[in-house]
Amino acid sequence: MYNPTVARLTYRALLGRRRAAILFVLPALLIVIAAAVRGFNGVDDQVASDVLGGFALATMVPLIGVIAGTGAIGPEIDDGSIVYLLSKPVKRSTIIFTKLIVAIAVTMAFSAIPTFIAGYILNGNGQQIAIAYTVAALVASIAYSALFLLLGTVSRHAVVIGLVYALVWETLFGSLVAGARTLSVQQWSLALAQKIGDGTTITSDVGLPLAVVLLVGVSVVATWYAGQKLRTLTLAGEE
Amino acid sequence: MTTINIEHTSRWFGNVVAVNDVTMTVGPGVTGLLGPNGAGKSTLINMMAGFLAPSTGTVTLDGEQIWRNESVYRQIGIVPERESMYDFLTGLDFVVANAELHGLGAKAARAALATVEMEYAQDRKIATYSKGMRQRVKMASALVHDPSVLLLDEPFNGMDPRQRMQLMDLLRRMGATGRTVLFSSHILEEVEQLASHIEVIVAGRHAASGDFRKIRRLMTDRPHRYLVRSSDDRALAAALIADPSTAGIEVDIAEGALRIQAVDFGRFTELLPRVAREHSIRLLAVSPSDESLESVFSYLVAA
After folding, report:
1. Does the keyword Transmembrane apply (chain A) (predicted)?
2. Which of B58, B123, B209, B300 is the most exposed place for a label (fewest CB within 10 A)?
3. What pTM, to 2 d.p., does this model score?
4. Set of chain B residues whose Cβ sits within 8 Å of the Cβ of A86
């Protein structure tokens, strides 16, 4: 299922691109914000939760998910270099699964770790807030990676669509329209955070059982479908 | 002995028919797929390479369907036309990765790089390579598992004459050892120099098939049109029309020239200067008016 060569190529492609700069900039920004808030405001559980929920989980995690998820396969399909993977006796589902693992690892590394550090800076993990948001970031990383990896296989405009989803749907609609929140990776992962935290500073609109079902379901279905798309991916010639 | 069989295969994209009911067999030796740009050569190669499903018909490798069958890549090596590779890797890293995907190691990669004489630059990033160097590294990646079938899409594009000769040598050697080598090109001379067998594709249709002498004859035997200016157009016209190698002559008064249609190419090229000399007519200009490759090909389709 997992092919180390495909993984190595994907890591190098992901981290070697200019786009990868965002992977470093966003976490750095989060930590700077956390340090500034702590410096000006002192320790405040509600503020810590607002920063982690409002910036880390609502904006940073989906953006990093977009970069890692679409970047793990999109550019290769765009420029045609995926030919070198497809012309090998390697199962297409193995290629997708490996790329998913890489995208998840990168998203987790660049979102969950800084979230934990920022949480510690903000209130020293009081009320388990740092841990709660770190777990939420870890779980959201999986779902976002699967979704955006699928997006990378079906559309040439994966990054744009991904950004629209991450910024408009998750951030804007999610805060305005109640129904949109049920279909939001952010809310699903918040349900887990709520369970871990004290249940008052962190709240989710989705119940935990439904959230878990949706997280697992979306990740599995997206990955399966991406594998199907890759099996029938046609590399149109230049004619 | 590995054979690719294409049977009554068509491929269309929306309303556009790229390949139209083609049937051909590609066997051991070097086969050239000849046709003008946009004729459907790449579409056909992509179907043989398993990157494109035929809309109708079948494409098989020794009886096994190629589309959606990853196991055929144990036998097929592919050199795509597109330039993009993993530019951030060195040549060696790239070929090693290709070897690993076949379950092979660095040894096979080094051997393939030696075959294409790229060892001297194998530690440089692919991004720094020239077009010819890229082409050779692509070749190495296709050869790494010693495939019995090699498919190359326009492999000579952008190569300088020396690189072209080297690659031709390499493909000839591969063909001589019983491998099935198929390459596409829109340049007749290229195909003629290398391929023992030629398949001609024009506008998605299989226009001709055979050895290069047969194709060459088909191409030179077609009616040729010439635009001729001379010191006495009418006298020249009268003398030429008497010979069976000429099918028709028009005196183009506006142009001040003769439009001649010749049916026997060899005989006409010998006849024209002789007639002019005998009648003391000076030839001022002789130019073929339909020598574009497209017209040559479209004649083949009609034939």
Report:
1. yes
2. B123
3. 0.84
4. 50-51
In order along chain A (239 residues), what is the average pLDDT of each group of 10 residues? Answer: 94 85 92 93 88 91 93 90 94 94 96 95 89 95 96 90 84 73 88 85 87 95 93 63
Matching CATH number, B218-290, of 3.30.70.100, 3.90.1680.10, 3.10.20.600, 3.30.70.120: 3.30.70.100
Cα distances from B45 to residues A212, A222, B10, B49, in angstroms, run: 46, 31, 13, 6
Distance CA B239, CA B271 (A): 10
B184 touches chain A (CB under 8 A): no
Six-digit token string for A126: 């009081």
Long-range CB contacts for residues B252-261, cutoff 8 Å, separation at least 24: B255/B227, B256/B229, B257/B227, B257/B228, B257/B229, B257/B233, B257/B285, B258/B226, B258/B227, B258/B228, B258/B229, B258/B230, B258/B233, B259/B225, B259/B226, B259/B227, B259/B289, B260/B225, B260/B226, B260/B227, B260/B228, B261/B223, B261/B224, B261/B225
B100 neighbourhood in chain A, CB within 8 Å: 4-5
User: A with B: how many residue pairs have Cβ under 8 Å apart?
Assistant: 91
Whether A236 has its CB under 8 Å from any CB of chain B: the answer is yes
Q: Which residue has the tokens 């959230």?
A: A211
- The first and second tokens of residue B84, run together, are 């993009």
**Angle at CA of residue B73, ends B70 and B79, nearest 5°:** 125
Q: Are A120 and A128 in contact (CB under 8 A)?
A: no
Q: What is the pLDDT of residues B174-221, one digit of tens each?
A: 999 999 999 999 887 788 889 989 999 988 999 888 887 777 777 766
Note the maximum CA span of chain A. Answer: 63
Q: Give the whole-angstrom CA distance, residue B299 versus residue A189.
A: 67
User: With an 8 Å Cβ cutoff, are A235 and B141 in contact?
Assistant: no
What average pLDDT score do residues B224-233 get? 88
Q: What is the pLDDT of residue A168?
A: 83
Residue A98: list chain B partners with CB under 8 A. none
Per-domain boundaries in chain B: 4-216, 218-290
Question: Which residues, including other chains, have CB under 8 Å from residue B32's CB and lie 6 or more apart?
Answer: B182, B183, B184, B185, B190, B191, B192, B194, B195, B197, B198, B199, B212
* Residue B134 DSSP one-character state: H
> Which residues span the domain enclosing A38?
4-238
CA B230/CA B249 separation, integer angstroms: 14
CA nearest A3 in B: which residue?
A: B101
The CATH number, out of the four listed (3.40.50.300, 3.40.50.1820, 3.30.460.10, 1.10.10.10), of the domain defined by the range B4-216: 3.40.50.300
Span A8-17, pLDDT tens digits: 999 999 988 7
Helix and strand counts by DSSP (H, E) for chain B: 10, 14
* Amino acid at the residue A85: L
CB atoms within 10 A of CB B217: 12
What tokens does B74 get?
């144990």
Contact A81 B81 (CB under 8 A): no
State the Cα–Cα distance between residues A78 and A160, nearest whole angstrom: 14
